[in-house]
Amino acid sequence: MLSGLPAQPYHILVSQADAQPGSQVWSFGFDAPIPTAPVPLIGSDEQVPLPLQAAYMTIYAARNFQVRLPYQTDPEPPLTEAQRTTIHTQLVQAGCRG
Questions:
Q1: What DSSP string describes 23-65?
Q2: What is the pLDDT of residues 21-44, one digit of tens each?
Q3: Does residue 57 form part of some domain?
């Protein structure tokens, strides 16, 4: 669908129905918060900001993922060494890994 995406592990794609195939992409990595994405409204030039980081944190806390997920093992697929270091540091700071 898209080519030339930045070398980041995560991407948010927003496409307005009447502007397709055009779209906007926000890319982010392990060391950055999830961006707020502007969600277009049908039949309007208005956009509503969708605070994805806040939504993620709310769900994470509500489902108690800090104690439910196996943070002692690396996720699949394998991480690069830089990703592994970043995630390990973040997990130690959050108290999920020793």
A1: -EEEEE-TTSPPPEEEEEPTTSS-EEEEEHHHHHHHHHHHTTH
A2: 778 899 999 889 999 999 888 777
A3: no
Sole residue written with tokens 């030339």: 4
Domain that residue 29 falls in: 1-52
Give the pLDDT band of residue 2 (cuts 50, 70, 90): low
Question: Whole-prediction pTM value?
Answer: 0.75
Between the alpha carbon of residue 60 and those of residues 24, 27, 31, the distances in Å are 26, 21, 17
- Sign of the Cα torsion 97, 6, 53, 63 reads negative
